[in-house]
Write a structure and sequence with these properties.
Layout (H helix, E strand, L loop, with lengths): L9 H16 L3 H16 L6 H19 L7 H8 L3 H12 L3 H18 L4 H7 L5 H12 L7
Helix pairs in contact: 1-2, 6-7
Length: 155
C-alpha cells in the first residue's frame, strides 16, 4: 500500500517532499497542498495502463519538464502546442487528465512557487514576480490571491 514505486525518480520526488516540508513550515498550507498534488502526480504517472496511456503520459511529462525549465518564457497554449506538435485542445485534455490541473493552472502554480523562492532569496515582490514569468505585478497579485487566499505581502 504505502510504498512509493521504484519508477518514481528519486531526485524529483525528494525535491517535491522537501518543498512540501518547507511550505508547511512557512505556514503556506495552500502551496504545500499543491506540492502534495505534484508528488501524487509523480507517483501516479508510474502506473502505465496501456501503451497509449504511456505515450500520452510521456508527452505530458515532456511538456511539464519544458514548462518547469522555461517559467519566465513564452508558455502560451499556442506556443506549447506548436513546440510539441500536439493539438491544443488535445493537449489541454491530456494534461488535465494526467495532472489534475489545466495547463494555465499548472503554469501559474509553478510561477508562484518560483516567485516565492526568489522573494525568500531577497528579491522584491515586483522583481520576483517578473523573474517568475508574470507579465505584470497586478497579474501576479491576482493569481497569488486566487491560489492562496492571501496577499503576496504575507509571504
Amino acid at each position: 500500500g504505502n510504498i512509493v514505486p521504484a519508477d518514481v525518480n528519486g531526485g524529483e520526488a525528494r525535491r517535491c517532499i522537501e518543498r512540501i516540508m518547507a511550505y508547511s513550515e512557512d505556514g503556506a498550507a495552500d502551496i504545500a497542498a499543491c506540492a502534495v498534488r505534484e508528488f501524487l502526480y509523480l507517483i501516479n504517472k508510474t502506473k502505465r495502463v496501456s501503451d497509449d496511456f504511456y505515450t500520452r503520459n510521456e508527452r505530458i511529462r515532456d511538456v511539464i519538464v519544458y514548462i518547469n525549465g522555461n517559467l519566465s518564457g513564452d508558455l502560451r497554449l499556442d506556443e506549447l502546442s506548436r513546440r510539441f506538435y500536439i493539438d491544443k485542445h488535445y493537449l489541454c485534455k491530456c494534461f488535465k487528465k494526467n495532472t489534475g490541473y489545466t495547463v494555465n493552472q499548472y503554469i501559474n502554480y509553478k510561477r508562484i512557487m518560483l516567485a516565492q523562492e526568489l522573494h525568500r532569496g531577497g528579491k522584491t515582490l515586483l522583481q520576483a514576480s517578473m523573474d517568475a514569468g508574470f507579465n505584470s505585478y497586478a497579474h501576479f497579485y491576482k493569481t497569488y490571491v486566487r491560489q492562496t487566499g492571501k496577499s503576496p505581502k504575507s509571504m
